[in-house]
Amino acid sequence: xxxxxxxxxxxINDHVIRRNSNKNKVIKNITETRCGVMYIDVEIRGLDxxxxxxVHYIKKPIILPIQDEKGYYLIxxxxxxxxxxxxxxxxxxxxxxxxxxxxxxxxxxxxxxxxNEIHKTTNKRGTTVFEEGEEWTIPIYNIQIFKNAINxxxxxxxxxITKTLNxxxxxxxxxxxxxxxxxxxxxxxxxxxxGKRSDIIVAxxxxxxxxxxxxxxxxxxLITLFKETKIKFEDIDNxxxxxxxxxxxxxxxxxxYQHIFFNRLLDxxxxxxxxxxxxxxxxxYYLLRWIIQNYHTLWAKDNLSMINKRLRCNExxxxxxxxxxxxxxxxxxxxxxxxMLKDFLNLFKFPSVRVLWGRFHELLEAC
Length: 367
Known about the structure:
The chain is of the alpha+beta class. It folds into two domains: about 1-85 and about 315-365, no CATH class; about 90-300, no CATH class. It has helices at about 160-165, 205-210, 215-230, 240-245, 250-265, 270-275, 285-295, 295-300, 315-335, 340-345, 355, and strands at about 1-5, 35-45, 55-65, 70-75, 80, 85-90, 90-95, 95-100, 105-120, 130-145, 150, 175-180, 190-195, 200-205, 310, 365. Strands 7-8-9-10-11 form a five-stranded antiparallel β-sheet. A three-stranded antiparallel β-sheet has the order 1-2-3. A hairpin with a 5-residue loop joins strand 9 (about 105-120) and strand 10. Helix 4 crosses helix 5 (about 250-265).
């Protein structure tokens, strides 16, 4: 990008989109406004209507107000200043949830569910049966996607269950067993049935299950996931089956697009601003694991403590640009492989003065 703060080079009429381009321009005099121009360089690749790969380069101007040395703005002849706000830093707890402030907020919610462990026995007929044992209350983690809360393990569904447990660092303690197999029963292992229609049993080492809430939560998420999806044991590592489940409507491609969306949950700005280890913010999968592993510590943070607050000022401006582009990106993602070059070009077809003449005035206080 390029920032040009030279006010003498700025003319508002050069940045106004007119519907009737053939008509003579009408110059409208306005009161003084101190503005600069930020040019964003964009390279867009896509298919045209003939199916040919094309490349377009765009130099998109964004009109931004200039703050003087005393922190004031001059807009339409009025001297104003930004309304400062005390806001949470990059993360804040709420009722039953922990939220990361991002381009799209990453909100992890928890609900408590009750599960009964089972015991494998043999009846008088010599048939193997399962009897219910001790009841456990286990937290289940969901991630809020728009208006829907989905099982957090669905985010990792492209890996399959075996690789997911390995990535979440619980593969040494949790196993997924075929209910119909002749598996040995051990006293140091706790077993959970995943429903009458499921042929899956989730097993965990009893000592670590009782001590570590993280291990219990992953067990609970697995049980809930298998009950809701009704996936068979033979398909727990079947990539295509999980894509169909995630995408719905029995389409693999739709599931792939959902995972593209999942990858966008953590943007570069949030990644740079998060004050955690670089290893834990490589992408949304690492960050989500870190949130779940430290959920109760994060949730216990004091929302009223000034340590967890900061001043918000210039990001007002950036939020409007981000919102404008983000809502257009979502449209393109929903089109999938039907998106053409013109759809990508439409991402940047908004007035250059949108920030200045949009809702920015709501955040200003006249002097």
